[in-house]
Every structure is written in C-alpha cells, then in structure tokens.
Design a protein that fits this description.
The protein has about 90 residues and is α+β, with helices and mostly antiparallel strands. About 45% of the residues lie in helices and about 15% in strands. The chain has a two-stranded antiparallel ribbon with strand order 1-2. The longest helix has 17 residues.
Length: about 90
C-alpha cells in the first residue's frame, strides 16, 4: 500500500499570465466586442447579481470557446489565500 504525498500548490502553479501574452489566435470582431461591452454595462446597472453569468456567456460566444469562467484570488478572514471559480460556463 502506498501513501499519497500531498504537494502544496503555490500561487505560481495557478497563474499563467506570461502565457496569455502570446499570439492571438483569432481576428478581433470590434463590432461584436463593442456590443458585448454595452450589454455588460446595461447588465451591471440593471441586474448586477447576474453580470458574471452574462460575462462568461459572452466570452464563450466571442472566443468560440468550449468553456469560460471567472476566477478570483481571495484572502480569507484567517489570512489564507484561496483560488475560487466565481462563475463557469
């Protein structure tokens, strides 16, 4: 019987900002992106509780993605830093 070793995950294991700076694989659709920003602004004013859901739906459509999500890095009351998915689609 083998024991599972628990590797602690550090912030650098999660953040991939350097990979996001690579080449863009699609041409921009400025008209659709502008319409999306207007839609999100209206959503924020009229129904802010559902804005993140609207954001990930728009991201799916504009990016032709299979999934989209909003991730948050938070600090708990005890000072622990946690990574949380706030909204997924």
């Amino acid at each position: 019987m083998t024991s599972l070793s628990s590797k602690q995950i550090v912030l650098e294991d999660i953040l991939i900002t350097h990979r996001l700076l690579g080449p863009v694989s699609r041409l921009p659709n400025f008209q659709a992106e502008n319409a999306a920003l207007h839609s999100l602004a209206r959503q924020m004013v009229n129904q802010p509780a559902t804005m993140l859901r609207q954001l990930v739906q728009i991201a799916l459509k504009l990016c032709h993605a299979g999934t989209a999500g909003v991730s948050l890095l938070e600090t708990t009351e005890t000072g622990e830093v946690i990574f949380r998915w706030a909204c997924l689609a």
